[in-house]
Amino acid sequence: MGLNLRGVKKLVSIFLDECGYTGADLLNVDQPIFVIASHNIDEHECLKIKETFFGRIQASELKHSVLGKRPNQQKMVIEFLNYLVEKGYSVKTSIVHKQYAVICKMVEMIETVMYDDGIDLYDQGGNLGLANLLFYCLPVFGGKVIFEDLLYRFQIMMRVKDEKSYDLFFEPLFNKYEPKELDDLITFFRSIHLKFGYGFLDHIKDHNPLDISLTSALTIMARWRSEISDEINLIHDASTNMSKQKDIWDALVDPNLPPIVTGYDRRQLKFPIGVSNTVFEQSEKWVGLQLADIIAGATTRSLQWIINGKSSEDHYARQVTDYVNKFVEHAIWPKMAVTPSELETEGENAASPIDFVLEVTKGL
User: Fold this and answer.
1) Are 338 and 306 contained in the same domain?
2) By the 8 A CB rule, do 167 and 202 touch?
3) Do residues 260 and 170 share a domain?
């Protein structure tokens, strides 16, 4: 008598790697982009892909940081990416413009003031509209020096979290700024001090407010879960910062969490995400991780080329851009958009993601 396999779930492995992580230093000049790349290609298939496209590479471990330097190896990467697209392999990436991410963190603080006054800035994408407005208008009205200095002082305060760093950020904000449009924009930040004073530090002392890796990975795995009904085994590069947050990660992706939808409009996450097991492995032992590294590195090269003005001399970056754009599932990236219709944020709201995360990770 044969076994009835209906309802029996198989185990699907997802490989995930990241590029451009600089911790709480989101203003790192050399690495302005953060990328997470993931795919669900079976390790056996990964071995065949490695042999097909990178068989002439003598090194045992593939790294985009090496492959992206030489024209003949760049060609290998391009052919590999083209193969992924042509064959329809599932690849998902998350991209973060780190300078813009700092602006988004600033807006989160402004939202705290507004929420206390009964205004939900997250509703209808108001936070995104304000972040875009500040990102594009502050440099126009204040110049690059004032813009970058404002972000730099904010980052120091969010990292040091003491009264000295608080004063370093807020005291200059109460000078008179010209033109008036710049002074009006600065008023958003003044409101934080006027509302909370040093008490604002209590909002940021108990967590890492500048972390972007965990939230990006969480969003990507939620996208995978929306397509996969089987059990998920996540294989993550052990060299990344995520391994240091495994307790928090395991709590947030626990398959036994109660069903709940969190977030706003199109920016919703469904729980449980249900990652049955997360292991942190050395990339030299898994070709799947090496291929994720190549995807992440190629995506980073493309995005840096874009924000640096799309030099016509960088033919490699232009070519990989044609492919890696197809993999983007999640982006923290500035847009010339401020209204709900432009932002596509006219949908319904669900439960507060912040409250949910705080509840799940309580005591960790």
Assistant:
1) yes
2) no
3) no
Same domain, 67 and 160: no
Q: Determine, yes or no, domain membership for 135.
A: yes
Q: Are 145 and 158 in contact (CB under 8 A)?
A: no
Full residue range of the structural domain in which residue 110 is found = 99-203
Task: Judge residue 195's burial from the number of C-beta atoms within 10 Å of its C-beta, 0-12 exposed, 13-18 middle, 19 or more buried.
Answer: middle
> Number of structural domains, the chain?
2
Out of 203, 238, 267, pick the residue that ends a domain.
203
Whether 6 is in a domain gets the answer no
Looking from the CA of 174 toward its CB, the CA atoms found within 13 Å total 10
pLDDT tens by residue, the chain, 364 residues? 333 344 567 899 999 999 999 999 999 999 999 999 999 999 999 999 999 999 999 999 999 999 999 999 999 999 999 999 999 999 999 999 999 999 999 999 999 899 888 999 999 999 999 999 999 999 999 999 999 999 999 999 999 999 999 999 999 999 999 999 999 999 999 999 999 999 999 888 766 667 899 999 999 999 999 999 999 999 999 887 778 889 999 999 999 999 999 999 999 999 999 999 999 999 999 999 999 999 999 999 999 999 999 999 999 999 999 999 999 999 999 999 999 999 999 999 999 998 899 899 988 8
Amino acid at 249: W
Contacts of residue 343, Cβ cutoff 8 Å, sequence gap at least 6: 125, 128, 129, 335, 337
pTM above 0.85, yes or no: yes
Residue appearing with tokens 């090194």: 59
Let me know: does 154 contact 25? Beta carbons within 8 Å.
Answer: no
The reply to whether 45 and 160 lie within a common domain is no
